[in-house]
Design brief:
The protein has 15 helices and 33 strands. It starts with a helix and ends in a 6-residue tail after the last strand. A hairpin with a 2-residue loop joins strand 17 and strand 18. Among the domains are: 142 residues, no CATH class; 121 residues, no CATH class; 186 residues, no CATH class. The strands form two sheets. The chain has a 28-stranded mixed β-sheet that branches. Strands 29, 30, 31, 32 and 33 form a five-stranded mixed β-sheet that branches. The chain has 731 residues and is of the alpha+beta class. The longest helix has 25 residues.
């Protein structure tokens, strides 16, 4: 009779007293117990949440059997345990789960070991979970992960079998499948995991990432084939081999900017062993990586992403609530216990990468794009004296960069770099040129060669810059430049006959010097060259076109001279050649003369003419006039007689000026100076110099520092708003 009614009786008892003994309601559609063959089958099993009508666990069928006759000899052999289509809902709240009450209720309360005369002999031939569904919900931060079609097989576990084997395969509802096997030694706690993951969608990680970074989205797919060995008592000691692949990864920040992405990242692991400090990779490759880097006055675009997890005194809550914190803590333990000093990668490649750099710290936004970025290293080895990288890229659509770098793996601060850049557009850098020197560039292509070495923090850098067909624009006076440089003049002076500029810019310094900034030093050296060219143009012009530096500073004339003589023609010819070779340059010829001294010379000359009673129409007559000694007694007697005076307290010069008349002299000096201007202009016109390239005029400044004993034309070299004169070099 007991055999017939045992199933309904047990079902009734379980359902009636389940809350009393488990804290949860348990219901079954059907329970079948066969005492003769040891079979137990439960259909429609449901276990509810504590004090709730929500289902915690349910199963279409739970089946198990036991070999009955072996119970007589105290042996427990279970041929099979099978769960068909079980569904479990796991909810995490901080460091507590919705099943924590069951653990609390049924966990062993005494820590004292139980003495046994002999071991219990037990054996389970097979445990099968078929097509399970596991739902996991984390309430803070809220996240939901669902596993579907989960199959688990555990064959042959027993009291005398120390190694358990667990085989599983399942799918994530969000995307991706997993197939794996776990071998676990229950005595030593040594484990081996073999896992195959295909196209796992990382979106569920987004919720946890928000505790670390302010991001709007995280996308990508992970695939792996890994073999991992370790010991659960020594969590940081792991050994692994296999491969990891990440496809279509991207991270979008909190202002919807894509910051980091990669089409495919692949890592082939030969051997990784944290305990033995072995990190050997067959290859590391990135296909179409993308990075966007922005500079602001207060920091970088990556700075705005950072955040800190909420402070809490319950560290276990932090660990359980965010898997990134758990991973970070795990990695920190590895780094703290093991020094990563031995590593090797047979090949490292970056193919078709993109790097975008944007600088918002200037007056105008600067944006530069590196495309088709390729990096190759055939071997990265910590035991090598040098690690070599080859790099190439397209720069802002037009430029091409190619170079190589070597790094000392034992001291990453020691490195050397050899880089060549060709055909970059100079105007792309206008935001910097406007910020530093308030001058944009309208045209120009540049080639740049850099050779840099850093040894023991000491930098030596040789920089060769070739700029072709460069044209500097007008200085923008709305900006306050960092450096006041006459850029247009310097460019015009530095350009060769082909319109190109070639500059050698050496840089040296200590990287430990807080004031040393490599980019700033480049600008300073380049700026010094420009200033030197603009403030001392005559030395530069003499070096290019021949002659003496003084030939380009001023053109000297004699008093009363109104025609261009042979020596002055030679000097003007040099200026003509300069104008024809440097089309951006213009000339100002500023006539300066001590009008009083020249009036005095004219007065003496005119008085001598009257004394001789001749005109100066011929060179012979002029020589005759100039041959008279101003202090000749007959000449001075003539002057006194003409003025009807014999005063010895007045110079001959003053008497001559009174004799000719000061107003007449003033008018005559103006005519002479204009004739000099006309003579110089006429000669330059004969040499086919356009009038808009030369400006000739007399200074009106009575205190001009160029005033001397004889008239001259001071040379002023100009290019747009910039200018350099002979006076500049004297300051």
């Amino acid at each position: 009779m007991l055999v017939v009614f045992i199933s309904p009786v047990v079902k009734w008892a379980v359902e009636k007293h389940s809350v009393e003994y488990t804290g949860r309601q348990i219901n079954m559609d059907k329970l079948v117990i066969n005492l003769f063959n040891g079979n137990i089958r439960v259909n429609g099993l449901k276990i509810y949440e504590a004090k709730s009508s929500k289902v915690f666990f349910q199963c279409n069928e739970l089946y198990g059997n036991i070999v009955v006759h072996k119970l007589l000899s105290s042996q427990y052999e279970i041929p099979e345990i099978r769960l068909d289509h079980p569904v479990i809902n796991i909810i995490e709240k901080g460091n507590r789960f919705n099943f924590s009450d069951l653990i609390d209720r049924f966990s062993t309360k005494s820590s004292l070991p139980v003495k046994q005369d002999k071991p219990i002999i037990w054996k389970i031939n097979s445990v099968d979970i078929i097509s399970a569904t596991i739902s996991y919900v984390n309430t803070s931060p809220y996240n939901s992960v669902k596993l579907e079609r989960c199959n688990i097989n555990i064959p042959g576990i027993s009291w005398d079998n120390k190694v358990y084997s667990i085989n599983t395969d399942f799918a994530f509802a969000s995307g991706g499948t997993v197939k794996g096997r776990v071998l676990f030694n229950k005595n030593s706690w040594v484990y081996n995991i073999m896992a195959d993951i295909k196209q796992f969608d990382i979106k569920p990680f987004y919720t946890y990432l928000k505790d670390y970074l302010k991001v709007n989205s995280l996308d990508g797919f992970i695939s792996t084939h890994l073999n991992i060995n370790g010991n659960m008592h020594k969590a940081t000691e792991i050994a692994a081999s296999g491969n990891i692949t990440v496809d279509k990864f991207s991270m979008v920040d909190n202002v919807n900017d894509k910051l980091v992405a990669v089409d495919k990242m692949s890592i082939q692991i030969d051997s990784l062993n944290t305990e033995k400090n072995i990190y050997r990779f067959a290859s590391i490759s990135l296909l179409k990586p993308y990075i966007k880097f922005e500079m602001y006055k207060d920091g970088y675009n990556f700075n705005r992403l950072t955040t800190s997890p909420a402070a809490t005194t319950d560290t276990s809550k932090v660990v359980y609530s965010n898997m990134f914190l758990m991973v970070a803590d795990y990695v920190q333990n590895i780094v703290g216990n093991y020094v990563v000093s031995s590593y090797n990668a047979d090949k490292f490649t970056v193919n078709d990468g993109t790097f975008i750099f944007i600088d918002y710290t200037l007056y105008d936004k600067f944006k530069y794009k590196f495309e088709a970025l390729n990096i190759l290293s055939d071997r990265i080895n910590s035991n090598s004296t040098k690690i070599y990288f080859d790099v190439s890229s397209t720069l802002n659509r037009t430029g091409q960069m190619k170079g190589n770098m070597s790094i000392n793996p034992k001291d990453l601060k020691d490195f050397s770099m050899d880089c060549t850049v060709k055909n970059i557009t100079v105007s792309d850098f206008n935001p910097y040129s406007k910020y530093y020197v308030a001058t944009p560039f309208l045209n120009g292509k540049a080639d740049y060669t850099n050779k840099t070495t850093v040894v023991k923090r000491q930098l030596t850098s040789d920089n060769l810059l070739l700029v072709q067909k460069i044209i500097a624009g007008k200085k923008d006076k709305t900006f306050k430049p960092q450096y006041n440089m006459p850029v247009r003049l310097a460019v015009a002076l530095l350009r060769d006959v082909h319109g190109n500029i070639k500059l050698d810019i050496p840089v040296t310094g200590s990287l430990d010097d807080p004031k040393f900034k490599w980019g700033k030093v480049i600008w300073q050296v380049l700026g010094n060259m420009m200033v030197k060219a603009a403030t001392a143009p005559f030395r530069l012009l003499a070096g290019v076109f021949g002659g003496k530096e003084e030939d380009y500073k001023e053109v000297d004339f004699n008093y009363l001279q109104t025609a261009v003589d042979e020596n002055q023609q030679k000097q003007l010819d040099k200026l003509v050649k300069m104008l024809k070779d440097k089309l951006d340059l213009k000339l100002e010829l500023i006539q300066v003369s001590s009008r009083g001294d020249e009036a005095e010379a004219l007065a003496i000359y005119q008085t001598k003419k009257k004394y001789l009673g001749i005109a100066d129409s011929t060179n012979e007559q002029k020589q005759q006039i100039n041959a008279i000694n101003m202090n000749d007694s007959l000449f001075t007697k003539y002057v006194d007689s003409s003025l009807q005076t014999n005063s010895g307290f007045e110079s001959v010069q003053e008497k001559c000026k009174r004799l000719i008349g000061k107003e007449n002299l003033k008018a005559s000096i103006g005519i002479i100076m204009q004739k000099r201007i006309d003579a110089v202009a006429a000669y330059l016109t004969q040499q086919q110099v356009s009038k808009d390239r030369v400006k000739i005029y007399s200074t009106d400044k009575l205190n001009d520092p160029n005033l001397g004993n004889a008239p001259k034309f001071v040379i002023n070299v100009t290019a747009g708003d910039d200018a350099a004169t002979a006076t500049t070099d004297k300051k």
